[in-house]
């Protein structure tokens, strides 16, 4: 069972979705208007919150994820869609191109998805598939941790998050282990039971892609241009100080 299947409905308890979507929405609203985005592929859609947001804006959206449990939660989130403009597909990232139809105006990959690609060959293959699946002039947006900084500072611990509902109290404690070319990401989930606590641990290995590795691969597969930001406010990316790496790559328009 995968890391995300094991987390199941705990995943949404760990993420402050309302705050996150409010922070990220203005970036995507500007991008979608400026680039006339109508059809979106949400690659690594998880429990579907971004897919739902884009769909509410009037876009046709296909969400792709490798975890059956995440997709089950995504479908529960959006309910029954009768107009056929929001759907979810189970597929590994390296094979998504064979499970979707047509081209997209935008392909989005958020929430530290790319580090689940384990090798240079996988990154090349996925970026090539993304480039081919975009329409001419389409955009690719991705976001994850700033591993240039993280690999230098070796910061292990993230701020804990809490979830309280009725008489239930839960805490999520996240930390990294650095192991050669990989980062092992761990989540310790604490649940209050009576006057005490029980806990369980979930772990997964990540490939800490640096900005230059990603940039070089984007160029290799044919993206026309690329920009990097430190967050969704558009702050320029700084390898030493930015907490995140947000990338925007564009496919060239068809030549006349």
What is the compact description of this entry?
The protein is α/β, with parallel strands linked by helices. The chain is built from eight helices and eleven strands.
Low-pLDDT sequence parts: none
Major sheet description: 7 strands, mixed
What structural category do the secondary elements indicate?
A: alpha/beta
Please, how many helices?
8
Q: Widest sheet: strand order?
A: 3-2-1-4-5-11-10
Overall spatial form: globular
What is the typical, i.e. mean, pLDDT?
Answer: 94
**Gap between N and C termini:** 49 Å
Describe the structure.
The chain has helices at 3-7, 10-14, 17-34, 49-56, 68-78, 120-133, 147-153, 211-221, and strands at residues 39-43, 60-65, 86-90, 104-109, 134-145, 161-165, 168-179, 182-193, 196-206, 225-229, 244-250. With 256 residues, the chain is α/β, with parallel strands linked by helices. Strands 3-2-1-4-5-11-10 form a 7-stranded mixed beta sheet, sandwiched between helices. Strands 6-7-8-9 form a 4-stranded antiparallel beta sheet. The longest helix is centred in the N-terminal third of the chain and has 18 residues, at 17-34. It is globular, with a radius of gyration of 18 Å. The N and C termini lie far apart (49 Å).
């Amino acid at each position: 069972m995968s890391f995300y299947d094991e987390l199941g409905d705990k995943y949404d308890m760990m993420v402050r979705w309302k705050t996150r979507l409010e922070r990220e929405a203005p970036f995507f609203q500007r991008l979608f208007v400026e680039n006339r985005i109508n059809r979106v592929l949400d690659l690594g859609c998880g429990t579907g919150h971004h897919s739902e947001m884009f769909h509410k804006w009037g876009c046709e959206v296909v969400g792709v994820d490798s975890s059956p449990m995440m997709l089950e939660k995504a479908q529960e989130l959006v309910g029954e869609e009768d107009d056929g403009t929001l759907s979810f597909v189970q597929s590994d990232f390296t094979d998504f191109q064979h499970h979707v139809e047509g081209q997209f105006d935008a392909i989005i990959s958020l929430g530290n998805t790319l580090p689940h690609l384990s090798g240079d060959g996988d990154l090349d293959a996925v970026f090539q598939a993304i480039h081919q699946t975009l329409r001419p002039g389409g955009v690719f947006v991705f976001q994850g941790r700033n591993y240039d900084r993280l690999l230098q500072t070796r910061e292990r611990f993230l701020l804990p998050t809490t979830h309280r509902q009725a008489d239930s109290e839960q805490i999520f404690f996240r930390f990294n282990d650095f192991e050669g070319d990989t980062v092992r990401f761990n989540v310790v989930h604490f649940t209050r039971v009576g006057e005490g606590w029980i806990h369980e641990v979930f772990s997964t290995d990540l490939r800490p892609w640096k900005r230059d590795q990603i940039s070089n691969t984007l160029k290799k597969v044919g993206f026309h241009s690329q920009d990097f930001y430190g967050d969704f406010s558009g702050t320029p990316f700084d390898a030493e100080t930015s907490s995140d790496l947000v990338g925007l790559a564009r496919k060239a328009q068809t030549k006349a």
